[in-house]
TrEMBL record:
Keyword Metal-binding: yes
Pfam families assigned: Sdh_cyt
Residues passing through the membrane, by range: 24-44, 65-87, 99-120
Keyword terms of this UniProt record: Heme, Iron, Membrane, Metal-binding, Transmembrane, Transmembrane helix
Protein localization: Membrane
Domain of life assignment: Bacteria
Matches recorded under InterPro entries: SQR/QFR_C/D, SuccDH_FuR_B_TM-su
Protein name (record): Succinate dehydrogenase / fumarate reductase membrane anchor subunit
Length: 123
């Protein structure tokens, strides 16, 4: 009986430690989302005011390493932040399951791969 209780306690400690890391990374991604979105908006809307943005210009920009990096970071940080936030909301409503965490992880990885594939079509 003590072995089962010890294992449950170890699982709980591991879950709490993981929860602490996801909490910290949620705040870090929020900071970088604000920073990178600010850079993104400044470059697209304020660097050349009055410029009409057309598809060819957007495609040309996505061929540069800077825009590819910025958009890839936005994708990664945004996906983590959104899906971890959704996971936290579900936990607040006592919807706790490892299968939900696994599904959210699969959705995140799938959307990230699709997004990166889409961005690399311009290279």
């Amino acid at each position: 009986m003590a072995g089962i209780a010890g294992n449950l306690l170890a699982v709980r400690e591991r879950d709490e430690m993981l929860s602490g890391w996801t909490w910290l990374f949620q705040r870090i991604t929020a900071f970088f989302l604000i920073l990178v979105l600010g850079v993104h908006f400044w470059i697209l809307h304020y660097q050349n005011p009055g410029e009409i943005l057309v598809y060819a210009d957007a495609a040309r920009r996505l061929q540069t390493a800077l825009f590819l990096t910025v958009d890839s970071l936005l994708l990664a940080f945004g996906l983590f932040h959104a899906l971890n936030g959704l996971h936290n909301v579900l936990e607040d409503f006592n919807v706790r399951s490892r299968s939900i965490t696994f599904v959210l992880l699969l959705v995140g990885v799938g959307l990230f791969i699709m997004g990166i594939y889409s961005l690399w079509q311009f290279v």
